[in-house]
């Protein structure tokens, strides 16, 4: 029986697994030679092969004869000719930026790179971004500002198991990436402390030694308050601050105003809990502060993360082996996907698209003139909001994303998508976005193609093909190459992942995310290679900041930040905070997991989680349908009562479409630096839904 060593298709942990068999259903076995999961898998990983054989798998292109006509099967030539003709005609009539490209954080490095190249060279449009903008962008911006470079964890994941203390801010890893918990419990078993900051007493918080439960939108005030206490109690590492950082005095001045009683009033976190958290973090030299979406998906998300980085710097953690600040990257290739050109302002190697030297280098690899490359474009939500408007794109090509479910203010995004003159979607199932398309291109899935992924450690891994795609299905690289040929794009457009990766290596050379020294052979031999890796003789960089930070002077930067609260606070009309997130058995927009029987059985429908006291005041009982309304829309979901959530807050997971679509409610207010929407807090009201008439 053929066995293929590869990695899970879901989160950024990229758990190792072996696939066996030739079909129709592969057998999944966890690998124990991958440090991230060490023989563990979550339910999604165990059932991941079922995704390949879902009943509504697309195996032939679909096309509408005209607007309003049904999607009908067609040949590949007909579909690709139509996409090329429509995009060319629209650009001829309205200009290069009239066509947009939207990518995904689950695409391999090769596909993300090639998609960015396709936008800039074949279409010459600036209008490209991807759904990773909705995930890690605030942490990326904050890390870049503080350290000069953004790379998930500060070292190998195994460092966590030896930690004296770990603070997880806004992350429920026990449900979102369960094998990660092994590293946290290993630290606890060795005497380390786990501190969790979350408005809900999640599965992760229940395993913590200390749980801080702030009001949604107040994380920045809490971080400043913790730093205030660290300074007041003499816990700051003054020698480290003097030798390895800059800008501290401005931060000291700001946090002087965050005395404990004031911070308790803002956040609801008791002062004794704050003191305990600081003392636990500072009791040893091997502590970590890890942020996730809960503190990043805010209109001030970059500043919120910065406040926790300031705390880490004051304690002397970043740049020390076995310690530091890290971001818990979410999507499968959330790290690699944000390094090689899918972002609106970016070129491969984490280069800025408006940097003349970066443009010259990448243009040389691509065989085009630097002046032919477009400049920065719109960020994800701004791009989606501009679709079909007079000054916005009139057509869009979409790969690996489902924004009708995943974008904030989803009903407005859906309206903009339907206003397009032309939409083409590459997907493996008829997602909620794909069914709106004029052309649907059936694409291969994770076990049917090869490539590389970069996990949350910054370790580049191999994804290996285990089975051939179904007849009639093509890989994204084949689709991109075919379209580039029809558009007479200059340069080479390979369909082979290894050839595309070699070009990516050359394009990234000299950039922050330098992959030049990483080869498929090295990944095989070494079990993955950490970037930056500038030459084949370089060992890779598991811990990038031990000697210096990636700033011009080698010092990390403190940045003073002030609390201002959520963009939309509660009031008499909308008196309750809503926060959103994930559940164990579902993933992202649910396009994959809502089609797997065991996962549907485990998590069949959306719900609203609320405190019994709040439910009592509103006349809501467990199991009752509840209408949750914000200023943007209404969702109807089943009530779940629990004392694990604050009295003033409700929670809805965002994996479902239909009337329970959480992102009908969420606020698209954007962070000024990262352009991250404020998914994690908005104001809502709740009422019992009227019973439906039989």
What layout of secondary structure does this protein have?
Elements lengths: L2 E5 L8 E5 L6 E4 L12 H4 L15 E3 L6 E3 L2 H19 L4 E5 L5 H15 L4 E3 L6 H11 L17 E5 L3 H4 L4 H9 L3 E5 L5 H4 L3 E3 L6 H14 L5 H7 E2 L1 H8 L4 H8 L3 H12 L4 E5 L1 H4 L4 H14 L9 E4 L18 E2 L3 E2 L3 H11 L13 H7 L8 E5 L3 H4 L3 H9 L3 E6 L11 E4 L8 E4 L4 E5 L12 H11 L10 H12 L11 H7 L2 E2 L25 E2 L18 E6 L15 H6 L4 E4 L1 H7 L6 E5 L4 E8 L7 E5 L13 E4 L6 E2 L3 E7 L6
Parallel strand pairs: 6-7, 6-16, 8-9, 8-12, 9-10, 11-22, 12-13, 16-17, 17-18, 23-27, 24-26
Antiparallel strand pairs: 1-2, 2-3, 4-5, 4-18, 14-15, 19-20, 20-21, 23-30, 25-26, 25-30, 28-29
Please tell me about this protein's structure.
By secondary structure, this protein is α/β, with parallel strands linked by helices. 30% of the residues lie in helices and 18% in strands. It contains 23 helices and 30 strands. The protein has a seven-stranded mixed sheet with strand order 5-4-18-17-16-6-7, with helices on one face. A six-stranded mixed sheet has the order 24-26-25-30-23-27. Strand 14 and strand 15 form a beta hairpin. The radius of gyration is 24 Å and the shape is globular.
Mean pLDDT: 97
**How many H/I helices?**
23
Q: Stretches where pLDDT falls below 50 for ≥5 residues?
A: none
- Beta strand count: 30
Please state the structural category.
alpha/beta
Largest sheet: 7 strands, mixed
Radius of gyration: 24 Å
| Molecular shape | globular
Strand line-up of the largest beta sheet: 5-4-18-17-16-6-7
Roughly how much helix do the residues carry, as a percent range?
25-40%
Q: How much beta, percentage-wise?
A: 15-25%
User: What is the straight-line distance between the termini?
Assistant: 54 Å
């Amino acid at each position: 029986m053929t066995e293929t060593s590869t990695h899970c298709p879901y989160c950024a942990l990229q758990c190792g697994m072996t696939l066996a068999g030739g079909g129709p259903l592969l057998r999944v076995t966890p690998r124990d030679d991958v440090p991230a999961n060490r023989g563990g898998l979550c339910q999604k990983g165990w059932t991941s092969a079922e995704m390949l054989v879902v009943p509504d798998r697309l195996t032939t292109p679909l096309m509408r004869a005209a607007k309003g006509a049904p999607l009908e099967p067609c040949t590949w030539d007909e579909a690709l000719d139509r996409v090329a003709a429509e995009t060319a005609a629209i650009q001829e009539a309205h200009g290069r930026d009239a066509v947009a490209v939207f990518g995904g954080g689950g695409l391999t490095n090769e596909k993300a790179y090639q998609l960015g190249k396709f936008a800039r060279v074949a279409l010459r449009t600036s209008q490209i971004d991807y759904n990773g903008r909705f995930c890690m962008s605030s942490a990326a911006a904050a890390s870049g500002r503080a350290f000069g470079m953004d790379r998930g964890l500060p070292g190998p994941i195994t460092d966590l198991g030896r930690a004296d203390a770990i603070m997880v801010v806004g992350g429920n890893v026990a449900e979102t990436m369960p094998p990660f918990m092994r590293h946290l419990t290993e630290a606890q078993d060795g005497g380390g402390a786990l501190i969790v900051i979350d408005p809900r007493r999640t599965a992760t918080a229940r395993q913590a030694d200390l749980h801080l439960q702030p009001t949604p939108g107040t994380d920045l005030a809490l971080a400043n308050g913790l730093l205030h206490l660290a300074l007041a109690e003499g816990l700051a590492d003054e020698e480290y601050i003097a030798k390895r950082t800059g800008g501290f005095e401005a931060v000291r001045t700001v946090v002087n105003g965050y005395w404990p009683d004031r911070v308790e009033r803002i956040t609801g976190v008791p002062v004794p809990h704050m003191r305990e958290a600081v003392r636990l973090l500072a009791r040893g030299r091997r502590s970590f502060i890890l942020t996730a979406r809960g503190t990043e998906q805010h209109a001030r998300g970059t500043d919120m993360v910065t406040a926790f980085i300031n705390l880490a710097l004051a304690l002397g953690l970043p740049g020390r082996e076995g310690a530091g600040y890290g971001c818990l990257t979410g999507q499968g290739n959330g790290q690699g996907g944000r390094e090689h050109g899918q972002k609106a302002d970016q070129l491969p190697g984490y280069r800025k698209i408006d940097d003349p030297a970066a443009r010259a280098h990448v243009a040389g690899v691509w065989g085009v003139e630097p002046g032919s490359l477009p400049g920065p474009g719109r960020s994800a939500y701004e791009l989606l909001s501009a679709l079909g408007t007079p000054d916005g794109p009139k057509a869009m090509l979409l790969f690996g994303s489902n924004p009708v479910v995943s974008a904030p203010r989803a009903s407005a995004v859906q309206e903009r998508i339907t206003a397009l003159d032309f939409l083409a979607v590459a997907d493996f199932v008829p997602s909620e976005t794909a069914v709106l398309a004029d052309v649907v291109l059936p694409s291969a899935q994770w076990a049917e193609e090869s490539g590389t992924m970069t996990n949350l450690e910054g370790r580049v891994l191999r994804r290996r093909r285990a089975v051939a795609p179904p007849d009639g299905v093509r890989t994204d690289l084949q689709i991109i190459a075919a379209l580039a040929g029809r558009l007479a794009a200059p340069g080479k457009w390979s369909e082979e992942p290894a050839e595309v990766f070699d070009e990516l290596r050359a394009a990234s050379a000299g950039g922050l995310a330098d992959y030049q020294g990483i080869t498929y052979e090295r990944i095989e031999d070494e079990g993955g290679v950490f970037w930056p890796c500038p030459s084949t003789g370089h060992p890779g960089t598991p811990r990038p900041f031990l000697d210096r930070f990636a700033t011009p002077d080698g010092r990390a930067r403190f940045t003073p930040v002030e609390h201002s609260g959520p963009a939309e606070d509660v009031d008499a009309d909308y008196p309750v905070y809503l926060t959103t997130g994930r559940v164990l058995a579902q993933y992202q927009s649910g396009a994959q997991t809502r089609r797997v029987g065991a996962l549907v059985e485990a998590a069949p429908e959306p719900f609203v989680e609320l405190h019994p006291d709040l439910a009592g005041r509103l006349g809501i009982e467990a199991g009752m349908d509840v209408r949750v309304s914000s200023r943007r829309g209404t969702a109807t979901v089943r009530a779940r009562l629990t004392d694990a959530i604050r009295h003033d807050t409700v929670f809805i997971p965002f994996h479902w479409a239909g009337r329970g679509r959480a992102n009908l409610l969420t606020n698209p207010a954007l962070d000024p630096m990262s352009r991250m929407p404020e998914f994690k807090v908005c104001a809502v009201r709740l009422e019992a839904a009227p019973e439906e008439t039989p």
